[in-house]
Amino acid sequence: MRDAFVRALVELARKDKRIELITGDLGFGVLRPFWEEFPDQFTNAGIAEQNMVSVAAGMALEGKTVFVYSIGNFPTLRCLEQIRNDCAYHNANVKIVCVGGGFAYGSLGVSHHATEDIACLRAIPNMTVMAPGDAMEADACVRALVAHPGPAYLRLGRGGEKRIHETTIENFTVGKALRIHEGERVALFSTGAIYEEVAGAYEALKKQGLSPALYTFPTIKPIDRALIENVAQNFELVLTCEGHNVLGGFGSAVSEVLVATDNRKAKGLLLGVHDRFTEIAGDREFLRIQEEIDSQNIALKVLEKLRG
Q1: HSE-up of 208 (CA within 13 Å, CB side)?
Q2: Domains of the chain, with CATH numbers?
Q3: End-to-end C-alpha distance for the chain, whole angstroms
Q4: With CB atoms 3.0 to 4.6 Å apart as the test, which of 147, 152, 212, 241 could cross-link to 271 if both were Cys?
Q5: What is the DSSP letter of 162?
Q6: Are strands 19-23 and 65-71 parallel, antiparallel or unpaired?
């Protein structure tokens, strides 16, 4: 996803000199194509994320489209007040880019586990929140955000994500989910890099005789209310899965729609990181198993819910 982000931004910056990229003293190997071609549109703000976001807000209020880039919690939780007061309050055209959502930096411990970011950012007025599931969705999100005015949060995986789409996504729209498979009885909703686990669960459930529908949600705010309402009225079970605390994130956004849906048929099943600090370190796959959001556990929980 990181490479797709930079490729798209470089292409767009060739046509729009208002695009600026600011980094918090990291990512130079990934960002190199941008700063080599557009040195006057690139700033290294140093290890000063709060200042970085305030600078971005000032640039945006002077007519720039500013992308702020850092990893994990550094561009989000560390400078939440600046995002809220400097960017969102002024509806400034600043796009906060986090690389390594969830457990992507799992071996570095809880300080690098970005598992509360969606909840914090989606609660801020004026903020658009996006979490692409693969490189093609990342490309589409960048292009959409350049055209979409106002503050936004783009949550990227660290790299190596399972490919969802083989070609460019046609008619991509902010706020709309993407259907990957049609199905019946069970609908699986995924956002971000956890898709590979949800896709694995989809295959496991097919072997059990089920035929789930599968959707990916590149946009968490605004959420695709119309799709959720339709699924809730026609399926027995809606499952959400995310590499994020089960409280306040993607599952909560979907649940807010479910509880307000008339003639709802579906039960809900929200899967995510348990509401606790992970006291162990390990790679992303290991930590997903500990939190029971790996493909095997997802499939088992679906079967248990249908039996219950």
Answers
A1: 17
A2: 2-156 (3.40.50.970), 178-307 (3.40.50.920)
A3: 38
A4: 241
A5: P
A6: parallel
